[in-house]
Amino acid sequence: MGAELKIAYEGGEAERAARHFVDNSASAVAYKRVENACAAVKNEEVDFAVLPIESSTLGSIHANYDLLLKYGLHVVGEYDQQESSTPEQEADSTSYTRFLLLSKKEDLALDDMTTGVEFKTSLVFGFKDSTAKGMLTRALTVFSQRDLDLTKIESRPWDGEAPQQNGEEFVDTRRYKYLFYVDVQGHLTDANLAAAMRRLSEICAFVRILGSYATSQSAETVTAELSSKTGRDETGTNITMADKYPPIPLRTTLEENYLINPEELEKTLTTHPDAKAIILCNPSNPSGTLHSPEHLELIATVLRKPQFRHIVVVSDEIYEQLLYQDEGAPERKHVSFATLPGMYERTLLVNGFSKAHAMTGLRVGFLAAPKYYIDPCTLLQAQLTSCPNTVGQVAAVEALKYELECMDKGERRITEVMKNLDTKRRYIVKRLTAMPNVRFAYPTSAFYVFLDLSSYFKDKKAFTADKSVALMSVDDFCAHLLQDSHIAVVPGSEFGDEFGMRISYASSMEAIAHAMDGMENLLKSLVFE
């Protein structure tokens, strides 16, 4: 197709609407029927079509709703045109026909030229055969609870030909089956609306976005925008690389055991309105500490606020089974963040078999999340790794079977392992406590201890006893431990803390004792200038 825009219409009033969207340089092509105009767009004979959808005097044009689904077109604009077929209607300012501008190409991008323009999103949804009651109420509630304004709802008979959102096949035995067409104020890039659509996709068997589009624009603006939409290039799914999402650090403190402070979380999200997600590691690597159920609820309370309802939570819970109890302390329990009220629909739970199942080398993990997250993740994985290795798959299945057997019997699967780790934990805590000026978060989970060595390296120049080696930072200290004593620890700079250091006690008791001796001796021998 050439550069000239072509827009299809049916009838005299529709031609006026078509001319609202494009200037005289475009071709307005007449068709005998509205359906023929829609088919022309689908077959790429024209770029766009105008579709009358409702009249202020006669109501909705019901059959035209069916054409939106039949031809798989997208709504990219709308226009309320004053009816003028008679002098009476010309004088009556309340007589209008609403036209939709349809395109085969979906484009949800916002340009600078549309800044400040109000937007509307049109969608259609339906339910599968179910004895569940109140499904329509549940579906509409996803909008009301997010303060989203519905401007129209229309029902149409459903012949069942529309593909199911979840890819399921089922026999619908209902005598009366309907699809529901809805218009809601806002653009799909709006965080609240995006969250509502994710939730709606869980409730409904079928959901389709018909379009997010401007409700009012000048003819010149629309012409420029439509011209930008006429390209014939085929565009696949955009995969945004990590450098497009710079991390926003949320500083935690030793005094709070490196746990998330809900007030600081709210401040950080407020000052970074473009934030899309938070990463929650609970139990924590590198600190070896645990957010209690009560603490998690405080975090969830922040995320339930209207301005943060778009935030997704990536919850790393791979250490969930590695918890320790201390006499006189409240029992420590792990709670999955997705189980908190309102958090299921926005949580991606990351877990695996490397820790509690000791399958580190097999590199098998899993993601649990609502289907609207899993589907694109599956596409991404298919391009990156295809699937886990065969040995890992078999081992993971057996591990899960054994896990379920223990759960059925009410037994803890790794009791002896945890006793062994707890012995090492208590030993390392005792040794670290005896070292002057070494501060650390008391470990309650996983198998890490995170130290604060700022007393040794902040604003100081440290040297080995013979002054042959300068240790100007914790990174230098860790490197010297490795080179001189074959002790491997991780500097805190790897985790955003220049004075921190992580120790793992997932090793033999002999190795841990050697590490503690070497670290203590080196700290004692340091000289400062």
Structure in words:
The model is unreliable at 108-114, 162-168, 217-223 and 227-244 (pLDDT under 50). The chain folds into 4 domains: 1-106, Periplasmic binding protein-like II (D-Maltodextrin-Binding Protein, domain 2), CATH 3.40.190.10; 115-214, 2-Layer Sandwich (Alpha-Beta Plaits), CATH 3.30.70.260; 245-409, Aspartate Aminotransferase, domain 2 (3-Layer(aba) Sandwich), CATH 3.40.640; 416-528, Aspartate Aminotransferase, domain 1, CATH 3.90.1150. The strands form 5 sheets. Strands 1, 2, 3, 4, 5 and 6 form a 6-stranded mixed sheet that branches. Strands 8-9-7-10 form a 4-stranded antiparallel sheet, with helices on one face. Strands 11-12-13-14 form a 4-stranded mixed sheet, with no helix packed on it. A hairpin with an 8-residue loop joins β19 (490-491) and β20 (500-504). The protein starts with 5 loop residues before the first strand and ends with a strand. α5 packs antiparallel against α6 (191-203). By secondary structure, the protein is of the alpha+beta class. The chain has 15 helices and 21 strands. 33% of the residues lie in helices and 20% in strands.
List keywords for this structure.
D-Maltodextrin-Binding Protein, domain 2, 529 residues, transaminase activity, alpha+beta, 15 helices, Alpha-Beta Plaits, Aspartate Aminotransferase, domain 2
